[in-house]
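> example.struct
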């Protein structure tokens, strides 16, 4: 088992139309407005940005995300990531119940040296840290969409 390899899947049920959720998710430069753990997003060009994230644990992850797919009709946003994490992420936005289901799939390898050294003992904490970040993101997006 590669202890520095992670796969995550998160589902967000949101009481907003799919188009509104997709519109918010396709603007990563606005994530810091509603997602507390996304500390900074710097646009490089129309498809690429540099992100700095930090959740509960005392470390930042800095990476470049490059959009590889943007398909509003299918509700799909995909990005390749390089930096402290290497891999891919995908949002899939669909109608669900009275609102929207946003599914987040991420598969990454950690390249940050400290996190690689702590891979075995830290793995449960790193996974919990990700879970807390995603919960806060869902809560923040929900509030953001209600305010719009």
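> example.seq
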């Amino acid at each position: 088992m590669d202890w520095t390899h992670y796969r995550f899947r998160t589902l967000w049920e949101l009481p907003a139309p799919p188009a509104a959720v997709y519109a918010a998710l396709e603007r990563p430069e606005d994530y810091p407005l509603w997602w507390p753990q996304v500390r900074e997003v710097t646009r490089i060009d129309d498809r690429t940005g540099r992100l700095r994230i930090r959740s509960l644990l005392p470390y930042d992850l800095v990476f470049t995300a490059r959009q590889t797919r943007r398909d509003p009709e299918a509700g799909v946003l995909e990005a390749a990531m390089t930096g402290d994490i290497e891999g891919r992420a995908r949002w899939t936005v669909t109608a669900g119940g009275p609102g929207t289901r946003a599914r987040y799939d991420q598969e990454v390898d950690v390249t940050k040296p400290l996190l690689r050294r702590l891979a075995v003992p830290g793995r449960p904490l790193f996974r919990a840290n990700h879970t807390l970040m995603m919960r806060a993101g869902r809560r923040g997006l929900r509030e953001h969409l209600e305010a719009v």
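> remarks
The first strand starts at residue 5 and ends at 14.
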